Amino acid sequence: MNEEIHNLLEMHQLTLASVLKRFIAFIIDDFLMSVVFIFIIWNDFEKATSSVQMINIMDSYILVYMLLKIIYQTLFAYMYGATLGKMVMKIKIIDIKTLQKPSLTASFNRAVFRIVSEMIFYLGFLWGVLNPTRQTWHDLTAKTLVINV
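RESULT FIELD:
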């Protein structure tokens, strides 16, 4: 499969996004999501009188945070083929078969498995670093690639 992907990319003069570009895009996206999350919990956070209460507040909103990330990743991948971080880094997500932005289903699948990768000690991301096509678990399940624009 890797050889087929490389041949396809070469035929269409596309290049895979580097691990560094993907990492920086990840940092940008997670920073943005963290800022939005802080705005969501700010009122509760202000009322906390100890660090333990702050941790409990954050724990109580963890599902909201995961849902926020899934919505963000799904909508941006589906609508633009890239999140804000990927846009800044000039990379985008494409479907392997169509070479177009992923479908809504593939975008949702990708977003959910991205969360799974994060929850399992980022092993899905490490997989992408070691994979010749740089596909993470969420790329593999959604049948997507991340390429340079």
